[in-house]
Amino acid sequence: MKKLRFGLLAAAVVAIVALVAVACGDDDGDGGGEGRGNTVQTIKDRGELKCGVKQTQPLFGFREADGTVVGFDIEFCKALAAAVLKDHTKVEYIDASDASTRFELLNEEEIDVLIRTTTITASRDRELGVDFAQTTFYTGQGFAVRTDSGIDSTSDMGEAIICVQTGTTTEQNVADHFTDIGLEYDPQGGLSQDVADAFFAGRCDVLTADASDLASRIAVRDDAADYKILPQIISKEPLAPGVRDYDSEWKDVVNWVVHGLIRAEEIGITKANVGQMAANPPNTEVARLLGVPFQGGEVAALGFDSVDPQFIQRAIAAVGNYGEIYDRTIGDNIPRACTLNDLVLNNSGCPDGQGGIQYALPYR
Amino acid sequence: MAVAAGGAPPPSSEVPLLYRRGVRRLLTQGIYVALTAVVIGYVYTSLDLREFGFGFLSEPAAFKVGNQWLTDVDGVTNSRITMYLVGVWSSLRAVLVAIALSTVIGVLIGVARLSSNWLVAQMAMLYVEIFRNTPLLVQVVLVYTILLIGAPLIENVVNVGDFFFISNRGMAMPWPVPDSGFWGTPDWFVGVWVAALLAIGFVAQRVRADRQGRERETGQPHYPNRWALGVFAVGAVISFFALGAPVSIDEPVIVGTHYIEGMVMEPEFTALVAGLTLYTSAFIAEIVRGGIQALPRGQTEAANAVGLSGYQRLTLVILPQALRQIIPSVTNQYLNINKNSSLAYAVLYDDLFRVANIVQNKAGHALEMFFVIIVTYMLISFAISVVMNFFNARVTAQRI
Hints:
Strand order of the largest sheet of chain B: 1-2-3-8
Order of helices and strands of chain A: HHEEEEHEHEHEEEEHEHEHEEEHHHHH
Number of strands of chain A: 15
Strand content of chain B: 5-15%
Strand order of the largest sheet of chain A: 11-10-12-9-13
Radius of gyration of chain A: 24 Å
CATH topology of the domain at 74-148 and 273-360 and 378-400 in chain B: MetI-like fold
Distance between the termini of chain B: 52 Å
Number of strands of chain B: 8
Oligomer: heterodimer
Number of helices of chain A: 13
Number of domains of chain A: 3
Largest sheet of chain A: 5 strands, mixed
Order of helices and strands of chain B: HHHHEEEEHHEEEEHHHHH
Largest interface: A-B, 41 and 41 residues
Shape of chain B: globular
Strand content of chain A: 15-25%
CATH class of the domain at 74-148 and 273-360 and 378-400 in chain B: Mainly Alpha
CATH architecture of the domain at 74-148 and 273-360 and 378-400 in chain B: Orthogonal Bundle
CATH class of the largest domain in chain A: Alpha Beta
CATH superfamily of the domain at 74-148 and 273-360 and 378-400 in chain B: MetI-like
Largest sheet of chain B: 4 strands, antiparallel
Shape of chain A: globular
Radius of gyration of chain B: 28 Å
Number of helices of chain B: 11
Distance between the termini of chain A: 79 Å
CATH topology of the largest domain in chain A: D-Maltodextrin-Binding Protein, domain 2
Helix content of chain B: 55-70%
């Protein structure tokens, strides 16, 4: 009996010493982690890309009944996996649907990249340990109402009940806007899916969110004709992939994959013809973009040392160019022609004051 | 091992080192201090406490809080702490209503379970088993979903006599609003009348004590409770009219798709209170039943023997004694209601936890915010405990 008790006491002491050691060990680990990360290497070692995506937003990131995740943002995850891992299926989609914890997922290294309809803002860039790559989708905060509501702009919304997602830029925009126009409103806040459900159930008069978000939620409904999105936009919401601060190598890769996909659309490289283009590039620029020699010359690596020169080629082969991604996932649900997400190249035919701003930086 | 004769403790040199009392005390206390130091040290070094402080709470909120009642705070000119207090008021409202409702329903169901009527007893049992054995979150969300989908749209509102409306934007009902009366402002009236009611309540209490004393002396019924209630009611009515009866009834009206005027009970509030009430009343019912059944049978038999009616037996003999058992357990249930009210998060009700979350989302300072949240819940819990301990002292004052 006494031996046993001594054993227990000894075990407790050992456990405590171990705990102390572990705690101190953690401290050392944290202290050493101050330098630059190398997410590209981490992804390669792991053999899988951890992509933080939304799973509750149709067209952008949505979990289907069979468990697959589909949408515009998802295609960029696949493109990155193809670029870094040479296999666009090697993606683990981590649920980052909750707006309030998405940046923590990134900072805690639960995900490598956050592609989840996230707006670039100065305060996020400064304070939340996140760096934003090239914008994939330009939108702004809009308002959805029922078609028969008689509401045509925010000036008709006095005393209206407005469903607004909390923990986002949206609620501050709406509070600021209604102060500016001097009207009262009654907010109904919650998670984006919850407030959308409440709006469609008739709990509120107005649903406010990014215009693309509104369009995506209305488009998939059987009674889509009963709702309309007001033309009024009260904010800029450029949506971009987020990576951790101090990891410029990985941010460069994400940036240039996005630029590469846009450039591919500008110069007519598609999922269908990318193989043929790579085998027989028509000019030096296409050869550079696809990472292949032009007429027996050298391959230009452009200084990317963590990925091989064909990384953009693989991304295009996996998901197609920017326009193909848009058509396949969003399509006519959010018209593209002459809106911000159209190519600058196509603006000649647009009405005055309208037109796209998608423009790839030169890859050379 | 040799056992010392006569039970005297062996000299300390014979006891192994680890079994000496002094050594053990030193060891356990040393381990405790070391552990505490490690935890505090770890927290201190791993968290960035350089910016620890509560200054962020006084900055402008830049968001608006819903489900407001009796307050109208816009969030642009008001500070974050003001928005938080609006959330605290929303929580308090839900907690107080849920406590009142679950007590009434819980006592009724608990007594019904002991009913000699088979059907009543079985239905009470069914109620308890259903609501005690399903998660509270499920109940809250279920009620919310029913209210949102099941209730009609505001366009098809159910109109009861033009003064009561039901839609999925809530139930709108008439509500008294104080006016100016003969003198002063509405606020002045409310203040004076509340003071008057307190004074009348004190008088009623004196009357009750006096009647109780005479009842005890003479053995004749002097109806202390009825007298006290009567004095209070008459005093309340007289003082009300003496101040000019300055209350108008605010009837709800629907303009477009909005309720205006009246009181609107929003579905988020209803769902939270209904969920808390259903769940907690099932537990209170069991506590009441247990408290009653714990009394010796002799109490019931004695009450029957002196010819008390069933109602008298319950109110004069059984419940006063059962309360000694019931109140401590019911206090725990009230504390649970307070804590469980944070499930407001699931039904979009802007309670203190949700508002705190919004603040934290905007300002960071998660540690400070959680500190504020915890202190708030504890303060509410302490307040509930203090009130319930007062009642407990009242029922246990008489030694039996």
